[in-house]
């Protein structure tokens, strides 16, 4: 076999064999001298005898000529004949030669191949490249599609500091500032191998072609699940298949077959040789939620609460490890955190005191100060059913005793805004002419609690409270029960 390349000598390496012949032949009358013997070279291509030549250099020159045609594109290629070429010398009398025939056969039958590096991802071949550096650059370029240049440089600097581990040392939250983000590793999801090989020089890939192949991936059979309304032509187009190709993959289907939702259709689609797996770490500042402590107190009514101490969130720095595949975030986990501000607990006092719905039987004055401007009894030719209270220091109206609000609304009979309280002990009180009401039917109110504001709604001659009392259904004079 002949070789030629950037490191190989241009001289011919040739498999030579020699027929050992008796140099002197004896006949009855003649003795031939050794000087009369001539050398011929038998030429074999892959073990097949092609012919004889008188000069082995002619074979070398023909091969060099074929190599030169290829080599002009890249002087760094290591080229050689693909076929095994052997020359066997023989000493003969009266030699004959087939120089032109043999050279023509060499020119026609010898092909030139290049020593190359095959790049494989998993068990899939990406292609052949002129050397290891070129193949490695393809991988680096593919990774660079998903990693910023400065991030890669930072990782390489960290790797240089720790070459034995080939990984950055362990990172904690103290190593980074809030907002910092560093790449900790850049790998492919499948194993990368580089293997020596040979190939037609025209099939060697450049870095750019190799990168295109990496992005495109390799064809693999997949299963497509039919969506509602999909037809075969639409599915074929989605995967860049002709109808004939799609039917070839699905023997049981015809072009007019009716498809069903979730039906499995076999297709072929390009799948990446590998994904770029980028692992990175970053620090974020986050709130630490405060705790809440509840203290029960019978000083407040049930349903009431008071904040004794306002809660405040704390702050922490959290170190996250994130994994991305081809630029998409797959997962994120917390690997370290540091509290920088402790939270302040919130303290809430919740009331437990229950308002009794049963009255005491002793009424409290339902206004803030004031006087009785009109007592119960005959007035203006009719009966005044209650007492009127006017001139208060505050217009607040209070429940005269514990009880349940029976009604709170506008009364068309002349009372205006009116509240009725059932004290659940046989007593009932009425509050009329209110400007506004602070309670609703069904509520339980405590003796002395605010239920509304004094006013002059309904038939009224001025701002006052009309107050009535009933005991066991019989109207009573409130002043007999007020303390």
Automatic annotation (TrEMBL):
Keyword tags: Signal
GO molecular function: metalloendopeptidase activity
Record-linked InterPro entries: Cell_wall_metabolism_enzyme, Dup_hybrid_motif, G5_dom, LysM, LysM_dom_sf, M23ase_b-sheet_dom
PROSITE patterns: G5 (PS51109), LYSM (PS51782)
Gene3D superfamilies: Glucose Permease (Domain IIA) (2.70.70.10), LysM domain (3.10.350.10), Resuscitation-promoting factor rpfb (2.20.230.10)
Domain LysM: 222-267
A Pfam family per the record: LysM
Domain G5, first and last residues per copy: 274-354
Protein name listed in UniProt: M23 family metallopeptidase
Organism: Virgibacillus salarius
């Amino acid at each position: 076999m002949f070789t030629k390349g950037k490191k190989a000598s241009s001289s011919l390496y040739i498999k030579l064999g020699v027929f050992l012949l008796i140099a002197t032949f004896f006949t009855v009358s003649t003795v031939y001298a050794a000087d009369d013997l001539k050398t011929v070279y038998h030429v074999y291509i892959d073990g097949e005898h092609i012919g004889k030549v008188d000069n082995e250099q002619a074979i070398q020159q023909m091969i060099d000529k074929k190599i030169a045609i290829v080599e002009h594109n890249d002087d760094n290629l290591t080229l050689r004949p693909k076929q095994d070429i052997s020359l066997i010398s023989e000493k003969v009398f009266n030699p004959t030669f087939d120089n032109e025939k043999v050279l023509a056969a060499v020119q026609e039958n010898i092909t030139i191949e290049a020593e190359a590096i095959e790049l494989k991802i998993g068990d899939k071949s990406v292609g052949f490249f002129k050397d290891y550096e070129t193949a490695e650059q393809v991988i680096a370029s593919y990774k660079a599609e998903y990693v910023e240049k400065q991030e890669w440089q930072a990782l390489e600097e960290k790797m240089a500091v720790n070459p034995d581990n080939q990984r950055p040392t362990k990172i904690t939250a103290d190593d980074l500032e809030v907002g910092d983000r560093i790449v900790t590793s850049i790998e492919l999801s499948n194993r990368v191998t580089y293997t020596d090989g040979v190939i037609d020089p025209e099939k060697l890939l450049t870095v750019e072609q190799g990168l295109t192949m990496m992005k495109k991936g390799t064809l693999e059979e997949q299963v497509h699940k039919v969506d509602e309304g999909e037809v075969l032509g639409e599915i074929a187009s989605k995967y860049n298949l002709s109808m004939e190709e799609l039917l070839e993959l699905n023997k049981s289907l015809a072009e007019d077959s009716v498809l069903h939702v979730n039906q499995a259709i076999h297709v072929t689609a390009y799948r990446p040789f590998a994904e770029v797996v980028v692992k990175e770490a970053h620090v974020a500042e986050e709130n630490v939620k405060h705790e809440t402590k509840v203290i029960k107190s019978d000083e407040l009514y049930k349903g009431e609460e008071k904040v004794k101490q306002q809660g405040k969130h704390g702050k922490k720095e959290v170190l996250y490890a994130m994994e991305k595949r081809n630029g998409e975030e797959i997962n994120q986990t917390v690997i370290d955190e540091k509290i920088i501000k402790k939270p302040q607990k919130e303290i809430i006092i919740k009331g437990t005191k229950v308002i009794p719905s049963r009255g005491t039987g002793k009424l409290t004055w339902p206004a803030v100060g004031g006087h009785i401007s009109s007592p119960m009894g005959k007035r203006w030719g009719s009966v005044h059913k209650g007492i009127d209270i006017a001139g208060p220091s505050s217009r607040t109206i209070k429940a005269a005793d514990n009880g349940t609000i029976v009604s709170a609304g506008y009364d068309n009979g002349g009372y205006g805004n009116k509240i009725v309280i059932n004290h659940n002990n046989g007593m009932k009180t009425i509050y009329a002419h209110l400007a506004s009401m602070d309670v609703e039917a069904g509520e339980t109110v405590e003796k002395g609690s605010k239920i509304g504001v004094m006013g002059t709604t309904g038939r009224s001659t001025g701002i006052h409270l009309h107050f009535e009392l009933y005991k066991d259904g019989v109207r009573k004079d409130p002043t007999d029960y007020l303390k």
